[in-house]
Fold this protein.
Amino acid sequence: MFDLNAYLADDGNLLRESLRDLYDKNYFRKAWAGELPVRRMKYIRCADGLEFSAQASAGHYCTPRQNLGPYVAVEIGFPNQRVEEFMEYAEDPKNPTGTVYGWVPVEVVEAVVNKHGGLACRSAASV
């Protein structure tokens, strides 16, 4: 079963520029000043080909709105196909593949990933 909070906590799923931010010599000064970089994760790719962005940080529509989880709701974005389970959270329901979905419960995201066959292998994840 897919565990979204474990996925979001795994630095191996960070986009490269986000990972570089962790090694910034001023990281702790920025953290103290509230200037932490927004963590950006790789797209989630399901076994059947469904792909979407799942993001959670101080700069995303998530709960809690902070850079470290665990989270109860996350921001979903730009799926490559319409996902009915996400539609009630759509910022622009008329454009289901070109919008973000705010505060989507973690359980909903996990159920969608499981419904679509779970995660494709990590090496196939989009960047």
Remarks:
- Residues 4-121 form one domain.
- The longest strand covers residues 100-105.
- The first helix runs from residue 4 to 9.
